[in-house]
Design brief:
Helices cover 46% and strands 15% of the residues. It has helices at 14-25, 41-49, 64-77, 101-129, 149-169, 187-195, 200-209, 219-230; strands at 5-9, 29-34, 54-58, 83-86, 132-137, 174-181, 241-244. Helix 1 packs across helix 8 (219-230), helix 3 runs parallel beside helix 4 and helix 4 runs parallel beside helix 5 (149-169). The longest helix has 29 residues, at 101-129. It is globular. The protein binds NADP nicotinamide-adenine-dinucleotide phosphate. One of its GO terms (biological process) is fatty acid elongation. Keywords: NADP, Oxidoreductase.
Length: 250
């Protein structure tokens, strides 16, 4: 079998960087995509240093032309992508009465439109191969979270979008699943601690105390789940939302 080619978005840091590294260790060639290719340089260098194959791709996932050009570059540099992990994300938290049009549009644009654009661009390569894996990052915030009306709507939207792709694309050998992490220690959660007026350590201790497994999550926890969902053996798992949250979620 030819080596599978994966695109991981928002992969310059945090969860995306861990997913890119893990898929490369699993033997996939990985397009490490983030807003600029320079931001991806360290992740690509680490993967190559460990004997993996990776290229850096700069693109804004909310921009149709940029996404289509990025996927064309992946085809040219690594081959047709059949795995996509839509992980790029931003926060613009605010209570509803203070939330601006831009807060709303920016978050929906990156998380929901970005996931749509990337899936639409990649699916033709997946269909041509008769095989594909789509993994979209949702969040426990999809269940509702104070100060995150935009983000919760986007992440709930990602779940409905993912289930629909599972239904539409299943006959082509393509699975689509969402991962909904709870608290995963990254720059994003550090920014949330700051917004809440807490130190990162204080915030993390508080979250761990109310998490059944009694710890916070790591990017590698999410990467492990992504690795399973894109694996050859996971072909009968589709349309699911997997909570990686250290305990049950409704
Ligand atoms: P992060 O550390 O903030 O990393 C997100 C990455 O996405 C950054 O490198 C960012 O680039 C990039 N990005 C932002 N906008 C982009 C765009 N338009 N096009 C391409 N790349 C873009 O976030 P994270 O904590 O690893 O989160 C990754 C994903 O998991 C997100 O979808 C997030 O919503 C989800 N998630 C995270 C948690 C958590 O606890 N951390 C929990 C649930 C879900 P810049 O650095 O230039 O902004």
């Amino acid at each position: 079998m030819d080596r599978r080619v994966a695109i991981v978005t928002g992969a310059a840091r945090g969860i995306g960087a861990a997913v890119a590294a893990r898929l490369a260790r699993d033997g996939l060639a990985v397009a490490v995509l983030d807003l600029t290719s320079e931001a991806c340089a360290d992740v690509v260098a680490d993967i190559r240093a460990q004997g993996g194959t990776a290229v850096a791709i700069g693109a804004d996932v909310s921009d149709t032309a940029a996404v289509d050009a990025a996927v064309d570059r992946v085809v040219a540099e690594l081959g047709p992508p059949t795995v996509v992990v839509n992980n790029a994300g931003i926060l613009r938290d605010n209570l509803l009465f203070k939330m601006t049009d831009d807060d709303w549009d920016a978050v929906l644009g990156v998380h929901l439109r970005g996931t749509f654009l990337m899936c639409r661009a990649v699916q033709r390569h997946q269909k041509a191969a008769g095989w594909g894996r789509i993994v979209n990052l949702s969040s426990t915030s999809a269940l509702g979270n104070r100060g995150q009306a935009n983000y919760a709507a986007a992440k709930a939207g990602v779940q409905g979008f993912t289930k629909t792709l599972a239904i539409e694309l299943g006959k082509y050998g393509i699975t689509a699943n969402a991962i909904a992490p709870g608290f995963i220690a990254t720059d994003m959660t550090a920014a949330t601690a700051e917004r809440l007026g807490m130190s990162v350590a204080e915030f993390e201790r508080g979250v761990a105390a109310v998490t059944p497994v009694n710890r916070i999550g790591t990017p590698e926890d999410v990467a492990h789940t992504a690795s399973f969902l894109v694996s050859e053996g996971a072909g009968f798992v589709s349309g699911q939302v997997v909570y990686v949250a250290g305990g049950p979620k409704d």
